[in-house]
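Postdoc handover notes: sequence design on the structure in folder B. Input tokens:
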């Protein structure tokens, strides 16, 4: 659809880098953020629907200076983080009650915050509407590679770092560190909290992913099945599925409650899309994410392709050529995907729109509050249990 580019001259020195390691949409889809390189995060108010986005894309690129859009008083912002930015995560804080107003929300209204994970181990948390720095969270001893807020709107933040730990922070208590999770022996690349806020998955430079309890902050199980480093993970919107992506060129779909492998998606070369003069030797995965309704996956791999997968199929339903992709994320309301690249650019792609079947909507509603074990205990036919637990799609 379109492309965003850094709006400042390229500086090549040891203090900065130009990669877009992370992109993020706010939960309501009103803001977009990307780490555009050179220690800078760009915040863009996002009133554009797909039609407006397509009109804008007629120019093929949004140029070196991103257009400023107005959304009421909202203005595009540039956050100078002082260090290379690796991880981004949005969260909305609820309105304060009984006059106990958080300084970040002086008018007592819900406010939006953005957490940024930095090269020196710091986490800086910003108030989006004003661009003011709220907290600097200290504790990690190396790069903060990824961040994940509890999806229920609580101010609980989990960070994943190259110091081989995950840390849990409570922003409602001035960013107090609640817990340190140790168990990885390699750099931690990714962390994801389940939508029901009961589980946390973390992926490191290891062949297994770790599943943690968000209630007791203890290890539930190791998910073993990959043949190389696991680098990305994501939960389905109903928390019933977990996907992990690895340098072994495979995505594995898991039942997080039982640890069972449900499906493996293999990234085989699509020879017809490649230039015959160049040979691609690897399709190591970089990123995987679920679509908002939970029926599709998007993956970015080193073979210069963005792929979109349907849960019930074992081959991609769509793909697009892209160079040096590092990350991907669906728009919260569906319809398109944002991807980040090594040159600091963000690209936007159309994604299949789907009207969920009544069966899937019922399954999604039930699985939001029923675990796999609770479904299996229901007095219903076996085939229905298999459908509800994603054993059949």
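Designed sequence:
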């Amino acid at each position: 659809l379109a492309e965003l580019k850094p709006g400042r001259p390229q500086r090549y020195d040891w203090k900065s880098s130009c990669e877009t390691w992370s992109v993020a949409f706010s939960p309501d889809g009103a803001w977009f953020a990307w780490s555009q390189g050179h220690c800078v995060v760009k915040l863009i108010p996002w009133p554009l629907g797909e039609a407006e986005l397509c009109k804008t894309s007629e120019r093929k690129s949004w140029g070196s200076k991103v257009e400023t859009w107005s959304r009421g008083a909202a203005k595009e912002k540039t956050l100078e983080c002082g260090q290379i930015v690796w991880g981004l995560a949005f969260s909305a804080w609820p309105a304060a009650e009984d006059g106990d107003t958080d300084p970040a929300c002086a008018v007592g209204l819900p406010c939006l915050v953005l957490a940024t994970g930095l090269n020196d181990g710091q986490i800086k948390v910003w108030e989006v509407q004003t661009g003011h720095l709220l907290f600097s969270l200290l504790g990690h001893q190396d790069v903060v590679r990824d961040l994940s807020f509890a999806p229920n709107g609580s101010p609980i933040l989990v960070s994943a770092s190259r110091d081989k730990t995950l840390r849990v922070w409570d922003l409602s208590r001035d960013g107090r560190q609640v817990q340190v999770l140790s168990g990885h022996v390699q750099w931690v690349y990714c962390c994801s909290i389940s939508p029901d806020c009961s589980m946390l998955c973390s992926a490191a430079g290891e062949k297994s992913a770790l599943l943690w309890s968000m209630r007791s902050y203890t290890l539930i199980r190791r998910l073993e099945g990959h043949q190389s480093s696991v680098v990305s993970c994501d939960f389905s919107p109903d928390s019933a599925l977990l996907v992990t992506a690895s340098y072994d060129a495979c995505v594995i779909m898991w039942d997080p409650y039982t640890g069972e492998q449900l499906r493996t998606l293999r990234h085989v070369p699509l020879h017809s899309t490649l230039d015959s003069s160049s040979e691609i030797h690897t399709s190591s995965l970089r990123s995987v994410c679920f679509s908002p309704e939970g029926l599709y996956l998007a993956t970015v791999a080193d073979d210069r392709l963005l792929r979109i997968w349907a849960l019930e199929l074992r081959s991609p339903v769509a793909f697009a050529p892209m160079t040096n992709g590092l990350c991907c994320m669906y728009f919260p309301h569906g319809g398109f995907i944002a991807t980040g690249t090594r040159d600091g650019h963000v690209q936007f792609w159309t994604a299949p729109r789907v009207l969920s079947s009544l069966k899937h909507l019922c399954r999604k509603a039930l699985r939001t509050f029923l675990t796999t074990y609770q479904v299996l205990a229901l007095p219903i036919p076996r085939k229905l249990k298999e459908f509800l637990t994603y054993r059949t799609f």
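Context for whoever picks this up: The mean pLDDT is 85. Don't rerun without checking with the PI first.
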